[in-house]
Amino acid sequence: MATAGSPQDVNMSQSPPNPPAENEPKYGGYSRFEIELEFVQSLANPFYLNYLASQKLLSEPTFVAYLAYLQYWNKPPYLKFLTYPGPTLKHLELLQQERFREEIISPELVQHLADGDIQGSLDWLKDE
After folding, report:
1. Which of 95, 116, 92 is nearest to 104 (CA)?
2. DSSP 3-state assignment of 23?
3. CA within 20 to 30 Å of 94's CA: 9, 51, 85, 106, which one?
4. pLDDT for 46-89, tens place per residue?
5. Cβ pair 3, 27 in contact under 8 A
6. Region (Disordered): which ranges (predicted)?
7. What is the largest CA-CA distance in the chain?
8. Is 27 exposed, middle or buried (0-12, 13-18, 19+ CB in 10 A)?
9. In this predicted model, what pLDDT tens digit does every residue of 28-45 receive, in sequence order?
């Protein structure tokens, strides 16, 4: 079953959500904005990226399109809501690349990213 903010629920041509308003529809008690914010921030965790890869989500075209849609978090006013903008946005950027989506299944890459945080993802880019 799709949840709000999941690839099945969001029309990719739909505009990004506005920050929560009083009258906005809720999904399980949360606004679309809150759900997408929580999900995009989870991308800062390389172990979560590995989990997504292990579940084969990173090879699903709909999920890949959803990751592309989430690029709006790179711009104001959304950027200011991110707790860890560096690794969050760097990993979101890397997830746009098929090679990274394939290689994040590797425990060595996950550990490299975890050990170096943002430096690890920058190093991975240099190796391309």
Report:
1. 95
2. coil
3. 9
4. 999 999 999 999 999 999 999 999 999 999 999 999 988 888 99
5. yes
6. 1-27
7. 47
8. middle
9. 989 999 999 999 999 999
The whole-angstrom separation of Cα 66 and Cα 58 is 10
Per the DSSP assignment, residues forming a β-bridge with 30 are 27
CA distances (Å), origin 49, targets 13, 22, 103: 25, 33, 10
What ranges make up the beta strands (E) of 22-112? Answer: none
Name the 3-class secondary structure at 30: strand
Q: Which two tokens stand for residue 117?
A: 């945080």
Question: 54 Cβ partners below 8 Å, 6+ apart?
Answer: 105
3-state secondary structure of 44: coil
| Spatial separation of the C-alpha atoms in residues 108 and 85, rounded to whole Å | 23
